[in-house]
Amino acid sequence: MSGARHPLADVRVRALLVVFFCSGLSMGYFSPLVTALMKDRGNPDLGVGLVGTAYYACVALGAFLASRHRQSVPAAMTTSLTLAGVLGALLPLAPGVLGVALVRGGSGLAVGAYTSVAQASLLARTTADHRALVTGVQALVFAAGLAVGPLLGTWVSSSRWAPRSSTASRRRCSCPSIRSRCSSEPCRST
Q: Does residue 32 contact residue 157 with C-beta atoms inside 8 Å?
């Protein structure tokens, strides 16, 4: 029996696995929240799809850019995690589809950056004999975060804790000639 430590016994490896769980959790958590926010504001379905596409395209771009940038692991992780947190907090303040797409795109860049930096750091901390195990556990915790995130996001967006805009209580007019939101008064056909 060799004296090598098990890779999951390393506290840094466990910390990186927590980052992967939180990354999956945030990806799943914000999807229903963003959808509810945009629907609450009366944005079209195409706008919701645009925001989702912008986010995931920026995740890929952020991973690519992080692989090209030479920065220390702690600095890269701190910068990208902070950016993702700040942009997540600013999301409700973003105006319109373009504003939400820009905030989500910036958040996607940060998520892509910290995920790729954490992946590289995780692989650097494990030996070739243990990489399959560590990568499998990494995929498991990321998927667990992706599985739990939408449940939490849906629960929060449907609860009374989620902020509602002033247009949330308004209903859509059933008149074909009126395409905008109307007040609670019934529409008059002309």
A: yes
